[in-house]
Design brief:
CATH architecture of chain B: Roll
Oligomer: heterotrimer
CATH topology of the largest domain in chain C: Nitrile Hydratase, Chain A
Mean pLDDT of chain C: 92
Largest sheet of chain C: 2 strands, parallel
Low-confidence stretches of chain B: none
Shape of chain C: globular
CATH class of the largest domain in chain C: Alpha Beta
CATH topology of chain B: SH3 type barrels
Shape of chain B: flat
Distance between the termini of chain C: 39 Å
Radius of gyration of chain C: 21 Å
Number of helices of chain B: 3
Largest sheet of chain B: 5 strands, antiparallel
Structural class of chain C: alpha/beta
Low-confidence stretches of chain C: 1-10
CATH architecture of the largest domain in chain C: Alpha-Beta Complex
Number of domains of chain B: 1
Number of strands of chain B: 5
Number of strands of chain C: 4
Strand order of the largest sheet of chain B: 4-3-2-1-5
Order of helices and strands of chain C: HHHHHEEHHHHEEHH
Radius of gyration of chain B: 17 Å
Strand content of chain B: 25-35%
Mean pLDDT of chain B: 91
């Protein structure tokens, strides 16, 4: 099996049995947006807008490179956006415009 | 399971269950995990492919195939998941711990065949 | 940073730092879905309350009850979800629960190698280390080495059982009741039970119980 074949057959999240360093008992208190992101995931699953399995697939579909550099909930929200585009629920333009509005609102709120 | 309530069963003729309703494997059955290689989405990790273990319990209720759920299918045929136990030495060649150590994982019915 | 030659006086900014790209994305996605009536703002608020209400204290209460009430323990081991529901713990994520009893002869450990499956209804959200590569990659092929990194040494005559959670089932470890706790009340027992003990990486001790 070529290296390319192996890469196709192993999802980036399928790491059981791979070599890895020592377990460090790290943890952090979730930031408010992270908790909202988790709640959003649950609500999306309740409505089957994005079910839990779609979320898992969407996170894996970000690929190993992004998987390495994004944090847990950063992966989730990026995956949600992609899945919502794929399902025709949102368009990239709609989300980008809304993100500009959200950012402008924040700047206005802090008087920057 | 169809034969689990003999008292009730005696009062009625045996109804036919839908395909997939009855678990294909019972606790104690020796099962072999398929060595196929789906791409796109799966929930049977690579380390388990082709390994042989024993069914510990049938997970109720039956569920959807999560490889399909991953692509947004929220309905369809249901099959059982099984809690399957494997000897560590079966899964990992050269497992360094005692031979009694074991690994347990839930596997969807279509991944299993009788060993 | 590079745009610092403006002339208005700097106000001390007491609100949060500039939101990250991801926080902005989260807000934008949520607001768009609410505007389209696909989800409700109240659903998000309610689910945050649900998440906040799920902590290891729930699991600790379950464990303490199992230690003092053999009939409850039998129900818990036979039907984890049903026994937790007796306590008013709902399984909002539609998972089932298998409770794994640690004994003199068996030590259980839970992991999710593929992602971060975790008994959230009874323990809340998992710690970061549970979601990171070292634990997920190694717990299934060298569990004893991983346990040793938590200071837990399992004698060779004790069977280590690793449960890898992948789909519908979640696991909760029922730790062994510590020696010397015979006089403890149910509440005192519950306070000894840590999150990590219910994942299976440490035993329950009389000395370092309390909050995780």
């Amino acid at each position: 099996m070529s290296q390319a074949d192996a890469m196709l057959k192993r999802l980036p999240n399928d790491i059981g049995g791979l070599p890895a360093g020592p377990v460090r008992p790290v943890d952090h208190v979730l930031e408010p947006w992270e908790k909202r992101c988790h709640a959003l995931a649950d609500v999306l699953d309740f409505h089957k807008i994005i079910n839990t399995e779609e979320k898992r697939r969407g996170v894996a579909a970000l690929g190993a490179e992004l998987d390495n550099v994004l944090s847990y909930y950063e992966r989730w929200i990026a995956a949600f956006a992609n899945i919502l585009f794929q399902k025709g629920i949102l368009t990239p333009e709609e989300l980008a415009v809304k993100m500009q509005q959200v950012e402008a609102r924040w700047a206005c709120d802090v008087g920057a | 399971m169809q034969d689990s309530h003999p008292a009730a069963q005696s009062l009625i003729s045996k109804p036919v269950w839908a395909l997939g309703e009855e678990p294909a494997f019972r606790p104690g059955a020796r099962v072999h995990v398929s060595s196929r290689s789906p791409i796109g989405h799966y929930r049977v990790p690579l380390y388990l492919r082709g390994k042989t273990g024993s069914v510990v319990s049938v997970i109720e209720p039956a569920g959807l195939n999560n490889e399909e759920e991953g692509f947004g299918r929220n309905a369809g045929g249901r099959r059982h998941y099984y809690r399957v136990g494997f000897e560590m030495s079966e899964v990992w060649a050269g497992y360094p711990g005692p031979v009694r150590d074991r690994l347990f994982i839930e596997v969807f019915e279509t991944w299993l065949e009788r060993a | 940073m590079f745009d610092h030659d403006h002339d208005h006086p700097h106000e001390p900014i007491v609100t949060a730092a500039r939101p990250s790209l991801y926080e902005i994305m989260e807000t934008a996605v949520r607001e768009l879905l609410i505007e389209r009536h696909l989800i409700g703002a109240h659903e998000i608020r309610r689910q945050i309350e649900v998440l906040d209400s799920r902590t290891p204290a729930l699991g600790g209460a379950i464990v303490a009850r199992a230690w003092i009430d053999p009939a409850f323990k039998a129900r818990l081991l036979a039907d984890g979800r049903g026994a937790c529901e007796e306590f008013g713990i709902s399984f909002y994520d539609d998972t089932s629960l298998i409770v794994l009893e640690n004994t003199e002869a068996v030590h259980n450990l839970i992991v999710c190698t593929l992602c971060s499956c975790y008994p959230r209804p009874v323990l809340g959200l998992p710690p970061d280390w549970y979601k990171l590569k070292p634990y997920r990659a190694r717990a299934i092929f060298e569990p004893r080495a991983v346990l040793a990194e938590f200071g837990t040494v399992i004698p060779a005559e004790v069977e280590v059982r690793v449960s890898d959670s992948t789909s519908m089932v979640r696991y909760l470890v029922l730790p062994r009741r510590p020696e010397g706790s015979d006089d403890f009340t149910e509440a005192e027992l519950a306070a000894l039970v840590t999150r990590d003990a219910m994942i299976g990486v440490v035993p329950v001790n009389l000395i370092d119980g309390a909050s995780p």
